[in-house]
Amino acid sequence: MPVNRRKLEKTARRVLEAEGVDGAELSILVVDDAHMAVFNRQYRGKNRPTDVLAFRLQDAAADGVHPELLGDVVISAETARRTAAEVRATADEELALYLIHGILHLLGYDDTRSAPARAMNRRQKELLAQYG
Fold first, then answer.
1. Scanning 30, 34, 51, 76, which has the fewest C-beta atoms within 10 Å of its C-beta?
2. What residues pair up with 55 in beta bridges, in sequence order?
């Protein structure tokens, strides 16, 4: 699936700016479901693809990692395309949603507990409406 890299980069920059993060770096990797399943199995123990994974490096600063390096966001283009068709969105919109979700995780947002998950979901919707 063709991916609009410039749009993803622009979305990432705008989200970081909106969150008050200046001078930070992150990597964005867009993969197919097969590769995403490998990452998901290796890092989460789940033998299936997922939409997005975020690998935060901020906690590794004490291990010599530069604090301006936020981490990595891995997105499944196939999942985005499939889900976009189900929810009547474009693949680009779905990719932007996944990217925003991943960046929020890199910035410390949590979606595993109810109150923080609601806050993350609310912020994600705001950012998607503005920059997605």
1. 34
2. 72
Termini Cα distance of the chain: 19
Q: How far apart are CA 35 and CA 47, in angstroms?
A: 11
- The Cα–Cα gap between 100 and 131 comes to 9
Any idea which residue has 């123990």 for tokens? 45
Q: Is the pTM of this model over 0.70?
A: yes
What the block records as the tokens of 100 is: 């925003």
CA atoms within 13 A on the CB side of 70: 23
Q: What is the pLDDT of residues 28-54, one digit of tens each?
A: 999 999 999 999 999 999 999 999 999
Domains identified in the chain, total number: 1
Q: What is the CATH number for 107? A: 3.40.390.30
Rounded Cα distance between 64 and 101, Å, is 26
Domain that holds residue 125: 5-131
Q: In this structure, are residues 101 and 83 in contact, taking their beta carbons and an 8 Å threshold? A: no
What pLDDT score does 59 carry? 62
CA gap 131, 114 in Å, rounded: 25
